Each structure stands twice: as structure tokens, then as C-alpha cells.
Here is the input.
Amino acid sequence: MGTTDALTAPVAIVGGGPVGLVLALLLDRHAVKSVVFNTEEASRWHPKGNTHNSRTMEHYRRLGIADKVRRLGLPQDHPTDVAYFTRYNAWELARLPMPSTADTMRSVAAARTTDQVVEPIHRANQMYVEKFVLDHAFTRPNITLRFGWCIEDFKQDEDGVTFRAERNSDLGTEVWRARYLVGCDGGHSAVRRSLGIRYHGYDTLEQSFLGGRMISTHLRLPTLQRDLFANRRAWQYVVVSPALRMLLISLNGDGEFLLMTKAADPSLPPDDAAIARMVQLGAGADIPVMILGHQPWTAGAALVAERFAAGRVLLAGDSAHLFTPTGGFGMNTGIDDAANLSWKLAAMVQGWGGPGLLASYELERKPIAIRNTTAARALAKNIGDIKVPAAVEEDSPAGEAARREVGALLATFGEQFASIGVQLGARYDGSPIIVRDGDPPADDFVAYRPTGVPGGRAPHAWLDDRRESGSSLFDRLGIGFTLVRLGGKAPDLAALRTAARARGVPLSILDIPDAVTRDLYGANLALIRPDQHVAWRANSLPADADRLLAHVVGA
Here is the structure.
């Protein structure tokens, strides 16, 4: 491939799903240009993941789109409960109550100063959010979108990556040259396979539900909400009976649903008539069923790529780790990959990243991928193989006892839908670009413990009483590094400013005088990375400020 007439971009992204698009948007925030290639002509209109966790919502907040994302999905007053039934027209076995968007935002408005959930979890199907994010990306000046294009034959050298891009519709061809290429092209990633990188882990889980071959079906059920759920609305409606397991997820609070069922015969395509009958059996009524589409998938996967990078080509999202959807960790882990990788690519493109910076991406993110895939698989194993007594549907004392027994077990599954420790607790302890100081808290999937110990997400605090845009500590961090001065003490930072200017490292200073926030961090000074993780803390600057900066930028 000749490069004389090649089109150029600092970063090429293969895959225009949520991870690839958010990576492009975060690069745009750093004023770095990128080009995104996606085989399909538009965002895919089939239901996928439904959970945008607290950390993902924080990344959306940085991009200025969190409020708009919250308007997508269920109506603002619709509860996000998970309800379990023997049949939808029969007994309710258990209910895990969870708030509507309106309730969630009221809790934020009343939150204490050091509340850590600045952006609560949001339930909106990925197909709605992905379309919105794509439309938003079209408005950004540093993003070139090539939807309906695929890339072929990429080759890398010491200075960059050259590849040919082909348009699907008319066989038009372009030659491109990028300094870096990122594969965000999913579980069957062509980029990963071209690099010869394999997955390691578990590719399935054999159990009666949420294991093996599953089918996701997009449905329109125009009467179900009105006739069976009018006074008991939920986000997920689960049938748990001796003969049937199925899960309906409300997409819009009205007639649109996502159905998850176990494939009757993994070797055969989904059968519309059989799935419609299953829905009616689960409903306990002959309701109208309109099937809009199917997507087969494999439950129980917990796969992590053996490497996240090879030279100037890197992997993010499902290309690097493949999840079972239990817990909603998959897309969210991928978006956190993008947050970690974006500033490091920006640093390399802009010249202030050191030679060891990009290597830290795999060192930091691979342990998180292993942690999160393990958590998702464990949740699937707990939930998918429930033993249901034969009497559970009987209108009898034995049936009542069986329902009580199953309901008590189901009521313990709430953490599947929360897991705040997984959401906010990712830590990069041991990273070569983190300056160690103190012992981190033990990892906990359930609980998040804010700490200023370097390596973790910066502890959050509200800096005024309004609880709106600009009120959060996170809102006042710079696009690059931010040195936070805490507790009203103001050491001279001239040496650090001088070192940052000399290296070209973007550096902001933020003063937070209150003692409560200082206690959260456990020091007078904290250096916060562009991805909001603490890189260093101390009570005073080191004698060699340049050496500190060199450490945290991989130099």
C-alpha cells in the first residue's frame, strides 16, 4: 500500500459501537482528531445492554451528555424494579424495588456533601443511547465517521499504521495512515484476530437459564403493560416456574420489550411462532405478540484477551474482553477502557506522553477485565440455575410454601443490579505510572470505599448546595491533569507549573478549602489524572517536581 496520497488521522478506530464512539468523543475533548470505521451503515437497531452504570454516567457527564442520556429509555417516573412471577397473570414471587429516574435525581439533589454517587446508574437500552451518541459524534469537529466502511490489510511500522478502507455499497476505496489504530470491533474482532491475539477464560456456562445458547428477541406487546402490569410496573419481568424461564425487559415503559430465552435447539434459528407461544405461556394469556427481530448469543462467557496491544494497535471493549450480560458490566467496562486509553493516546499524539505510557493501558485494564468478567459470570451462575419446586404454581398450602421459599431466594439477588463496588472500585495499584502511597482498601464487588490512596477513582465531593452542572468536584477538574489543593493550605506550586510547561503536560490547579474533602483524600495535595484516577498525593510537593510528572506520564 502506498502512503503518498493517504488520508491521515492521529487515531483510527475500528468499530462504531458505544466504546468506539465514546473513545472518539473523549479524544475530541482532548482536541485530538480520529476517524471511526464501522461496517454497518448506522447504529444497530436491536436491543442490547440496558445498564449505563455510575462510572459510565460520570464519563457521559464529562462529555456534557449525561442529562440527555437520562431522557432516553423508560419514562422518568417509571420504576426500575425487577419482579419475579410464576406467570405474569398469576403470583408475584419477589420484587427488588429500584427507583425511577425522577426518584434517582431527587436523591442526588438531597445528597450529602461527600456522597460518592454523583451520577446514579441509568436504565436505557443501548440501541437508544448508541443512536444518540452517534448523532452527537456527527456534530464534533475532530471526529470523521466512516459508517458503511470496513478496513483491510493494516500494516504497522515504527511511526504508524497504514490500511485500506473499503465502502460496502459501491466498493469505493481509501488508503489511510494513522499513528495509532484501536480495535473496538466486538467479540469477533477482526483487529484482534489479525494480531493473532487469543481470548482466555470461559466461553460458556451450562445451566438451565443464563447459560449456553440464548436468544434475545425484540418484541412489541401492545396490551401487556395495560392488561397485566398497569399497577405493578417494573423494568424487568421474570417468569420462574418449573416448566418455563423467561425474562422480559421493558424498553420504553409501553409496548416495546426485549425477551431473553434459552434456545430450544442451538443448531436451529429462532422460530417466531414458538417464541410467540412461549410469551403467551409466560403471560398466562393469549396476548398479541409482534416479533421485530432476534439475536442469538452465548451466556456465561468470561473471556479476556491475552494481550490488549501489539505495537501501535490496541484493543478496547469486547475486542479485549467478552462478558455474559449479567450485572450489565460488559459495555461499561469497555467505556472505562476508552476513558483510560483516550488520555494516553492524546498524550502520545500531543507529545507529552513518555515511552512507557501506552504500555500502562494493558497493565491497568487487563486486571479489571479479569475482575469484572469473573463477577458477571458468578452472578449468572447464582441466578441462572434456581431450583423451582413443582408445587410453586399450585393454589394450595404446599404451593404457598414453595412460593415463599423461592421468593426468599430471589430477594437476595439484588446485588446483580447494583454492584457499586464493581462500578466505582476499579483500581490501578501496581501501575508503573501511579506513585504508591498507603494501602488501598480490599476489593469489594458490593461496597465502594472512597480513598485518596493513589490508583483509584478520585473521591467525590459536592462543592456547593445546588447539585447541578458545575457543583461536582469532577466538574471542576481540568481536561488534563489537575493538582487539587485541599484543606485550605496553599503550598507554592511554581516548580510543578514550570515542569508541566516544559513538558507540555496540561495542568490545572483546583483549590478545595474544606476539611471534610481533605479528610477524604488524606493529604493536602492530590494529582488527578485526566481519567479521574488519583496518580499521586502528599502533604507537599517533592523536591523534584519534574521527576513526579515524568513518573505519571510514563517518562
Notes: The mean pLDDT is 93. The two ends are 33 Å apart (CA to CA). The first strand starts at residue 7 and ends at 14. Residues 484 and 510 are 5 Å apart (CA to CA).
